[in-house]
Amino acid sequence: MIDPALLDPTGNSNGKGSDLVALTRAICDIPSVSGDEKALADAIEVLLRGCAHLEVLRDGDALVARTNLGRDRRVVVAGHIDTVPIADNLPTRLAGAGDDAVLWGRGTVDMLGGVAVALALAVELGAPGSEPAHDLTWIFYDHEEVDSALNGLGRLARNHPELLRGDFAILGEPTDAGIEGGCNGTMRIELRTRGVAAHSARAWIGENAIHAVAPALARLAAYEPREVEVDGLVYREGLNAVRIEGGIAGNVIPDACVVEVNYRFAPSRSVEEAEAHLREVFEGFDVVVTDAAGGARPGLDDPLAAEFVRSVLATTGGVPAPKYGWTDVARFSELGVPAVNFGPGDPLLAHKDDEHLPVAQLAQCRDALRAWLLGG
Amino acid sequence: MIDPALLDPTGNSNGKGSDLVALTRAICDIPSVSGDEKALADAIEVLLRGCAHLEVLRDGDALVARTNLGRDRRVVVAGHIDTVPIADNLPTRLAGAGDDAVLWGRGTVDMLGGVAVALALAVELGAPGSEPAHDLTWIFYDHEEVDSALNGLGRLARNHPELLRGDFAILGEPTDAGIEGGCNGTMRIELRTRGVAAHSARAWIGENAIHAVAPALARLAAYEPREVEVDGLVYREGLNAVRIEGGIAGNVIPDACVVEVNYRFAPSRSVEEAEAHLREVFEGFDVVVTDAAGGARPGLDDPLAAEFVRSVLATTGGVPAPKYGWTDVARFSELGVPAVNFGPGDPLLAHKDDEHLPVAQLAQCRDALRAWLLGG
């Protein structure tokens, strides 16, 4: 359970709106490692269902809450409620005070801070006395940190595609309260070599499959990843071996070796083009694609997106940046909904055991988002 | 138990001496995978202790049986009684008949055929009416197929060095009934690279430890192993990666990679020289030696060895060849005892699931060895 008082926009101690620090802590302190989101989803559901201005649907441990105000345009705000495994970093710990305070613990960055911001605004905007400029769809979903086939947003897109529709989407992934547009695509391939096993005392009878990967590693080591400008943002690519395995025993010539390679490619390149590029790079090798997800163009040339960027940056400063990591903005992009990442927390701290959040970013994100959603 | 009648030099069906095929089968059919040699050692001990002409000592599952005839010179004949794990290839199976018969099963080649030959001659030579030209030491030992620290011959050399003394040693390892002199040395090293872990979406923050092994694999792939003549025999070397491992997860730049390399080097090169060579080949890499055993020069220039070779080849034909694999002849070599490999079975079938022995080689080896030991 989360105390509803934490979400009262006028009720917190400093009078500046909902108590986001206490709310973020309450959310983080309900463990919600992927697959175990039920308790947190239950707590969020209670709060959403308490709002007369929201129509609520639950699918597994995903929740969708929508206003139906008859506005011309609809904005979707989405965030995942699962975290990577806890590493002795819960319950949360608050260090320092006031605007300089830092909140430590699993989920503070990725991305329960963003969930707290969204939850506070979901309860506030559209309630009596609050007139958002657009209709709003709030999505809280499960299983983002694991196999993409389990992803709750993907499941919603399959089960209720109409609920993901909108004119613009904001994903609350950590961006240090800046705006990160689109995302790189990702592809994993396996390069497999075959040899002939033999006793290593008579190596000439065999054929060494580990030696056979030498040219592939040489090409990887020499590869110069591109920097590609897409819609005004520069995406940096990457091509890396992430796993290598070969060998039978200390006295046997290995008959098989496998190299797993991860390619991160700019959103201007399709999955098919990415695969063709890898087949060219690794010509002569047996290439098997094991996993692939296209990127998302930043879409900042969309009028609603441009308006959002202008409004937020007026509050936060800075310029839009590319998102390098693959995020669920790509799912919106696939549905034809322009989407950006915008949330509290340093993305480089995601998944780290020392994950921590400067709490000032919570209010900064909420205030910028609220101002724009109210037509500011 | 092994039926003593199988060892009666005059009692077998074809009248040509002990029934080596039945004896080999009886020995193979007592499972004796390394560490589990007790039953076979017990059975051999009973037979040896039944011989008044032999002085018998047991150390663990190793047995040493010696004649004390006051001869000028002493010849050692040794063989290990353990096998690699059984692969549904016991009990033995005899296919065909007479001299063309083939005996299938674990241990037939490596090296219980050689053990049968030695056991038959141990019981026969020096018994009343038999006058060997040299004093004889018969050694049957455990744990050859596993970690060299467990090796029964090595243990005997530590506990009873005097029992291994002799003027010449014959190891009954499979040589297809030919003579293989000396053996290559073997060294295992690990090459380790270090990198910096990072999310693969931001690879430039990390440093890829798998890419860093590329030059080492390129050097291995390009390496041209030497052929080295030592005392008239040509030894073929080999340098091979036998294992490679690296990687943390499909989206993480790996921070460590290890390549295990096995170097087989001619007996003209010492362990120290072998290490120096590898440090030169892998200059720039962190090289750790994990295992090393020097080779053994063939020693065929020793007068007793030369006499043995002449005598055996008069029966079997052929010419002496180098032994490529490391064998326990190196232990005798270290003790200053010239030693050769001579035994039934194709060494290329050792450790294979389809291990099998043309039984004609059993009598061929026994007859050649008996003739020489009797001063023929």
TrEMBL record, chains A, B:
<dbReference type="InterPro" id="IPR050072">
    <property type="entry name" value="Peptidase_M20A"/>
</dbReference>
<dbReference type="InterPro" id="IPR002933">
    <property type="entry name" value="Peptidase_M20"/>
</dbReference>
<keyword id="KW-0479">Metal-binding</keyword>
<keyword id="KW-0378">Hydrolase</keyword>
<dbReference type="InterPro" id="IPR011650">
    <property type="entry name" value="Peptidase_M20_dimer"/>
</dbReference>
<feature type="domain" description="Peptidase M20 dimerisation">
    <location>
        <begin position="185"/>
        <end position="283"/>
    </location>
</feature>
<dbReference type="Pfam" id="PF07687">
    <property type="entry name" value="M20_dimer"/>
</dbReference>
<dbReference type="InterPro" id="IPR010174">
    <property type="entry name" value="Succinyl-DAP_deSuclase_DapE"/>
</dbReference>
<protein>
    <recommendedName>
        <fullName>Succinyl-diaminopimelate desuccinylase</fullName>
        <ecNumber>3.5.1.18</ecNumber>
    </recommendedName>
</protein>
<dbReference type="Pfam" id="PF01546">
    <property type="entry name" value="Peptidase_M20"/>
</dbReference>
<dbReference type="InterPro" id="IPR036264">
    <property type="entry name" value="Bact_exopeptidase_dim_dom"/>
</dbReference>
<dbReference type="GO" id="GO:0009014">
    <property type="term" value="F:succinyl-diaminopimelate desuccinylase activity"/>
</dbReference>
